[in-house]
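Task 17 of the worksheet. Students: predict the tertiary structure of the chain below and write it out as structure tokens. Keep your answer in the requested format; marks are given for formatting as well as content.
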Amino acid sequence: MSIIQDDVVLEHVVLKSNPVYDVDQVEVLRGPQGTLFGRNTTAGIVKFDTIKPGDTYTGRVDASYGSYNTVSLDGGFGGPINDVLSFRVSALYQHRDDWVDNTFAGSSADGTRTPRKDAMGGYNDRNARLQLLLKPNDAFSLLGSVHTRDYDGTSTLFLRNAVTRGSDKVDVPRDRVAYDEAHDNPQAYQTDGGSIKAIYDFGGVSLTSITAYETTSGYSRGDPDGGAAANYPVNGVPNGFGQSMGQIRDLDQYTQELRLASEGDDALQWQVGAFYFDGRDTTDFYQRAYFLQTAARNPNNWVRLRNTNTSWAGFGQLSYKATDALTLTAGLRQTKDSKETRLLKTADTAAGAVTYRGRRDVRMSDTQPSWDLSAMYEINPELSVYARVARGFRGPTIQGRSAVFNSDFTTADSETILSWEAGIKSSLFDNRLRLNVSGFTYTVDDIQLNGNDSDGNGVLFNADKAKAYGLEADLDWRPISNLSLTAGLSLLHSEIHDDRVYAQACALNGVVVCTVNDPTIRVGANTFAQIDGNPLPNAPKYNLNLAARYDIPVGNDGAFFVSTDWNKQGETSFVLYDSTEFRADGNFEGGLKLGYTGGYGAWEVAAFARNITNEKNVKGVIENYMAAVYNEPRVVGVSVNVNWQ
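Model answer:
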């Protein structure tokens, strides 16, 4: 899934985690995409647009306070400086106290203080953005934006043996861990960036240029085995020591996009463009021996990688209104995607002896077309039908982190997707009911998959293909003026097709620790499971969203209201092979909000609860340690928001 914020693609996972604030609108576009703007993607786009500077003074503040001293302040203010220049200042502050106890009472080889109450789980996230809009005339505009983020908090918490063999149920407390190492799983990142968007209208044709730069540095340290080794002995010996840290020394992302598009309401509309992406980072990976304060310490137990990714693309799209009811659209893109990973430092012995024998410089590159064809037919002003077929492309991928275990890099060649979609869009009963329904099917050839090796390291590989089909529907209904109902449903069936591909199954010290339901083979000390016919990981069979709001008017400009929203997910597998344990079925969460809104919606005060039933849902697993990652706990609080202009 591609993330775009204010027309800038965010590629690295750290950049994708940047919070959004002072938001104007959010768009979700089904993949494949790439013939309109930005970088090509097979999985679709989530596009965030923030509020821009305007010619009148406006502002907004959203503030909330809840459980665990959770604070959120999100706001923005802006307006004209003079006749041609305007500004917008936006900020976000989020905080939560540490709330997870570390109950381990034994000794720690790296100096971690144990036991400790409220040792981890909190965070501080500080963000700010400044935008300036220059508009000297009706033909030209120049929007400049700079932003910064300063984050520190707790990395992902894994809970060892939260998953019980033979069952997909979990019953380990969410607010307690027993970690013997890793100094309470700290992480911190500093991110800065900026962009310039220029638009010039030549009269009938407009030119858009978007230039952007992002940079970040930081680290994330953790105890991925999810528990103290002394608590899980094998033959009387503590088992499962493990901690690691990834540190981005520097990451730089530069993008440039140019688009030339027709303007007006002619039957034929067109757009052509070019896109350039350059991402580079120097990243270190440290393993346990580096951090030890004992004789086993190895100061050389880390690697340094230099990753480079460049992408060039040209794209275009034509849209023709063949009749008043029928619109035809065609798009084409050609992309060259190149990647390189260089090993700058190997993980040597404490005495400095080099033991790594794998590759030190891997380069991959591919050039592929993407395209789409679609038709939209308006049966009447309330009902339209459409169909779309599209081809997408995802470039090759390199994974070099395994070098810290003296294992060779792993790679995956490019994957391509062919997607078919058809559906209806409707707005009925004087716009009181909106119903959209679509069906889809797609095939991914040479699909890129990620498994694990015996060290829990990610291993990239290609399978022959994956096929999927499904249905999506969303409903907005206002049966009476004071009641609004929203529903969304997605159904998905997916299958991996390749009887030659096997994935390493859960194993600790060579012993399989979970229930594998697929055929297996033994290679040395490792067990591999056949994945042919299995669903794609983290792809729920269904996803159901329900929401409702009821207003009780007070006077001419206010109302009491109550709203609720719920989500439920169908059966979901977290791994490539079929396992009894590493799946979830029927996970759900709900929220409730009661409040008062006044001034014709200009302000609101409310009480709220998220995860109101305090469900404990598994969101991910570490297989060899039977460890789980949970969802957020219940948070109850109050909120205030104000909008003015």
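Marker's comment: The chain has two helices and 42 strands. The chain has a mean pLDDT of 94.
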